[in-house]
Amino acid sequence: MLAKRIDKALNHQIELEAYSSQVYLAMASWAECEGYGGIANFMYIHSDEERQHMLKLIKFVNERGGKAVIPALKKPPVSYKSVKDVFDNLLKHEVHVTNEINSLVEICLKERDYTTHNFLQWYVSEQIEEEALARTIMDKIRLIGTDNAALYMFDRDIEQMNVISAAQDNAGA
Ligand code: OFO
Question: Which of 15, 40, 125, 137 is the least crowded, having the fewest Cβ atoms under 10 Å away?
Fold first, then answer.
């Protein structure tokens, strides 16, 4: 049985994962409308992954005797100044999610809920990977600067980054 405090904290995380999925979906749509097909695909896949993170939490809460509440959908930002702005926001968002996961882990330790603590280790590793990927992408964007030809190549190559990260996820699953 989940303690009330843990139930509440996990439900908060369910909401955050749902919101993450919305944020990346909005980024996908922005990129698609701006003609960045590769970035759009990257974001569509990322959005689906975030939904899976949400579902995993919902199932865990209900299996442990808690009550997962499906949250209302908050409207994410819909427009961006540039590709750099998109990925800046993505990195900021992931850092925020990592901090939230870490607080959740801390609550579990305080409540001596080692089962939930163990379950959350998957999210801890996932955040390390996602932040690392976001930082790698930001490094590339900084190198690209205002070079449109390089941006064109980046848009083509970013799909490959998704494939690699998905393959790593599967290997770890
Ligand atoms: Fe759910 O992993 Fe990113 O936010």
Answer: 125
- Domain borders along the chain are 4-172
Closest CA to 66 of 113, 127, 6, 22: 6
Under DSSP, the state recorded for 112 is T
* Confidence (pTM): 0.92
Each residue's pLDDT tens digit, 102-115: 999 999 999 999 99
The architecture in CATH of the region 4-172 reads: Up-down Bundle (1.20)
Distance 142 CA to ligand 1 centre (A): 23
Distance (Å, whole) CA 96 – CA 101: 9
- What rounded mean pLDDT belongs to the chain? 94
Q: Is the pLDDT of residue 79 over 70?
A: yes
Q: How far apart are the two ends of the chain, measured CA to CA in Å?
A: 26
Range from 36-40, 155-159, 168-172 that averages highest in pLDDT: 36-40
Q: Which residues line ligand 1 (CB under 6 A)?
A: 17, 20, 50, 53, 94, 97, 126, 130
Q: Give the ranges where the chain is alpha helix by DSSP (H).
A: 4-33, 37-63, 83-110, 114-144, 148-172
Res 65 pLDDT > 50? yes
